[in-house]
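HUMAN: Forgive my ignorance: could you write out one protein's sequence and backbone structure tokens?

ASSISTANT:
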Amino acid sequence: MNIPVKITEEDLSVRVSRVAAIAAKHADSVDFEARFPTEAVEAMKAERLLGIQIPSQFGGEGATIAQIAELCSMLGQACSAAAMVFAMHHIKLCSLVEHGDSSEWHCSFMRRVASEQLLVASATTEGGIGGNLRNSICAISIEGDICRLEKDATVISYGSHADAIMITSRAHADAASSDQVLTVFLRDQYTLEKTHVWNTLGMRGTCSDGFLFKGEAPANQILPKPFAEIAAQSMLASSHLLWSSVWYGIAVDAVARAQAFVRAAARKSPGSPPPGALRLAEVSNLLQMVRSNVVAGLKAYENAKSDADKLSSMGFAVAMNNVKIASSETILEIINHVMLICGIMGYKNGTPFSVGRHLRDAHSAQLMISNDRILGNTSSMLLVHKQDTSLLG
């Protein structure tokens, strides 16, 4: 039996660096072929990174969201698709860890995730409601000890490759669309009939195809808390923070390519600043803004974690929404600057300074979940909530 040891930043960094090296090697083929980053995910399993968030009493290492965010950033610098798979897996684990510890079945499932390095996917989107995760059309049915669910899931990221899917639905046939539950279905408890093919501009390796999901499982696999509570207290923050960490990693790699380009130009013309030098300074400032934004969000989440009321408050939701909006918009500006710095060498594929993949992948950021939807929710909250104007919170 594996006896968990206290996790260290150095240990995590070494392990994820090995995964990142493998992910970087295959990043272009993952993108070009729109294929799942198999090599990177197998390396994550080999390094036992899929279970690090699970508490030590269930065989994991008890990694914090801040530690996982750092790993997302490191993987984002290598392969954004692999990093996003890792982030989305841990977003689901955050809901499981924070809200499943009172259920014997979910505690047992956490042990399995840690010991078997299971990959967990999410199914919150649905035909007819799109990305509005706080509403469902489908409803779970419970007969005796068995629950059944059929859902037109227009997107299930890496659904064909997952070992389990955590899926939202209405709590019962007569429930309101916002009265939802979250259920874990294991791979042998559901079928997936592909309805949409993931042929996109960027993030192609996440393989986020659409499926008709049909599942049957013991009813005790439904998480005991309402999804409204789960979404507000864990999923909102973990999604915006881990996604933003991936996007930051993409931007870091792009800026590193711009820096290498400007250095090469400086060596060719010693004594005179290269044309892209000022833009490089400008883009460095933008990158620091994204980093500061994410770090502040991580600290806010850590400070609120022990207070359920604070986690469910409008002020906290506004803060997390702002993290996502700011990071998703700024990374596009950063990578566009990098393209201008590197010129045709950045625009062309296959050069050391190519950032076409970075730019295409970054465009997904404003769509996960749509910034317009988030801004609409934020504006509604700000009608009744006073904006926090203190510098130090």
DSSP finds twelve helices and seven strands in the chain. The longest strand covers residues 210-218. The chain has a mean pLDDT of 95. The two ends are 44 Å apart (CA to CA).
